[in-house]
Amino acid sequence: MLIYSFLIIGLAVSIYKDRGKTKKAVFIGSRIFIKMLPSLLLIVGLVGLILVFIPPDTIGRYMGTEAGFSGTLLAAVFGAITFIPSIVSIPLAGSLALVGFMAAIFLFIHFLYPPQSVEVYSISLNYLKEMALIIPPVFILMGLFEVWVPKTFIQKYMGKEAGFKGAALAFVFGTIPTGPVYIAFPIAAGMLKKGARIMNINIFLGTWAAAKLPQLLIELKFLGPAFTALRFALTVISVVIIGFLVETLMLKKENQERCATEKG
Asked: Do 82 and 4 reside in the same domain of the chain?
C-alpha cells in the first residue's frame, strides 16, 4: 500500500535527521488519532446500520433513476450528513456520548433483531478493519507534517500569495493519492492550520474525491474516453468554482464576526 511506503520513508528520514522531532511527530499523530477515534467509530456503526436496515428497493425508489432530481438532492444531503462526524470538530465528551448512544442502539438491535444484528456487526467490523489499516499511518504522517513542514512553506506554495500555482499544486496533490476520501480531511486540516488558502483546500478535497488518477484509469476502462474526459473537465471546473464560493462565504462570515466582536 502506497501510504505505508510514504510512512516508512518519512519515518526513516525523520529518525535520521532528529529522533526527538520524530518522537514528537508520533505523539502528535497519536493524539489526533485518539481525538478522532470516537467519530470514526460512529461512522462505522452508521454504515453497518444503514446497509442492513435500509432495503435495496427503498434506496432504488428514493435515490434511483426514477427518483429524478429529488433522488439526486437526497443523495447529496445524505452524503454530506454522513461525512459530518469526520470533518466537524466535536468535543471529546460529545464524541464519547455519541458512541455510547450508538452502542445502546447496537444493544437494542442485538436483543430485538438477533439475525440482523450479526450482519450489522460483520459489516461494521469489515469497515473498521479497513480504517485500522489506513487511518493510523495517515495520522503519523500528519505528525511528521506538523513537525517538519514550516508554516511559511505552505503559505508560499498553497497560500493566498501563491495564486494559480497554489491552485495547480492543490489539484496535483489531490489526483495522486489512492486512499479513500476520509483520509483527505485530516490532511486538509493540517494544511489549513499551516496557512493554506481555503480555495486550494477545497480544490484538494474535491480532486481527491472525484479525480484521482487510479480512479480515472478504471473509469476510462469501463466508461470510455468520452465520458471520462467530459466528467473530468466538468469536475475540474466545478471544484474551482466551489472552492472560490466556499472561500468567499467563509471569509465574509469571518469578517462579519470580527466586526461584531470589535463593536461589542
From this structure: yes
For the record, the C-alpha cell of 107 comes out as 444493544
- What's the pTM? 0.63
- 224: DSSP letter: -
Q: Encode pLDDT of 178-214 as tens digits.
A: 566 777 888 888 888 888 999 999 999 989 888 887 6
Annotate 101-163 with three-state secondary structure.
Answer: HHHHHHHHHHHHCHHHHHHHHHHHHHHHHHHHHHHHHHHHHHHHHHHHCCHHHHHHHHCHHHC
Range of the domain at 169: 150-264
DSSP for 41-84, written as a single string: HHHHHHHHHHHHHS-HHHHHHHHSGGGHHHHHHHHHHHHHHHTH
pLDDT above 70 coverage of the chain, percent: 85
**Measured distance CA(149)–CA(143) in Å, rounded:** 10
Q: Please, are residues 22 and 11 in contact by the beta-carbon 8 Å criterion?
A: yes
- CB of 187 closer than 8 Å to CB of 139: no
135 and 77 assigned to the same domain = yes
Enter the C-alpha cell of residue 184. 483527505
Is the same domain home to 117 and 185?
Answer: no
Last-in-domain residue among 98, 125, 148 = 148
Task: Write out pLDDT tens, residues 22-68.
Answer: 999 999 888 878 877 777 777 788 778 877 887 767 766 776 667 77
Owner of C-alpha cell 526527538:
20
- For residues 116 and 140, membership in a common domain is answered with yes
Q: How many domains is the chain partitioned into structurally? A: 2
Residues 19 and 112 in one domain: yes
